[in-house]
Amino acid sequence: MTETIVAYLRANAEQLDVDMAEALNIPLSELREEISRLAASGDVICCRVTRFLDGRKIEGISCRLSCDPPTPARGRKPGVKKDDDAEASLF
Asked: What proportion of the chain, given as a percentage, has pLDDT over 90?
């Protein structure tokens, strides 16, 4: 079962435990036990999350592979200056 969880996370990135249990047809209690073993060994990083979908409160565990950092947010980053002003002052 460990290999299927790791393969699923590798293919789908960060996932909520409820979604993983549904997709892999594994009971939620068994999945949570296996996730805790994977987290203890350092293969998976988990954190408790609360999400609100259509006014419903959903609490669960968000999991991702430890070697798979989240992608940076799109757009300009704080503290980054444009080089246009620096080039204009040279001439």
From this structure: 40
